[in-house]
Design goal:
The chain is of the alpha/beta class and 134 residues long. It contains four helices and five strands; from the N terminus they run βββαβααβα. It is globular and about 40 Å long.
């Protein structure tokens, strides 16, 4: 059995505004500029980036792989755990996009962490936005 620890983040400068997302999967960095959107959409996009990156890294062994996903977005974590309903239409679509990816792994847990514990993913988001001139 394999276990991946994934830190994800997303952010927008303005809400909505220019946005980026990032994931750190077993100490490998992934990030991307995602255009103009809200902070919460960017957080979900970071989750999707982390799930897709973990799927690539796990390859054919994804069904034997456990994921521990750590995020500083309490809203997204509570929605993924079923503690909050997903009301926003854009977030509903992203939540739905995440489900088939989550189901490809043996297990997936979600943990809300303070921003300080998510500093590497946060730094990646800001580097992308800085590089784009935002």
């Amino acid at each position: 059995m394999t276990k991946f620890v994934i830190f994800t983040d997303g952010g927008a400068r303005g809400n909505p505004g220019p946005a980026a997302c990032a994931a750190v999967v077993n100490n490998q960095d992934f990030s991307e500029f995602i255009g103009e959107t809200t902070n919460n959409v960017a957080e979900y996009r970071g989750l999707l980036l982390g799930l897709k990156s973990a799927l690539k890294l796990a390859g054919k062994k994804s069904e034997e792989t456990e994921l521990e996903i750590k995020m500083d977005s309490e809203l997204v974590v509570k929605q993924l755990k079923g503690e909050y309903k997903v009301k926003d239409q854009n977030l509903k679509l992203l939540f739905a996009d995440a489900q088939p990816l989550i189901n490809k792994f043996k297990s997936v847990s979600f943990k809300h962490v303070p921003r300080e514990e998510n500093s590497r993913a946060d730094k990646l988001v800001n580097e992308v936005l800085d590089t784009k001139g935002y």
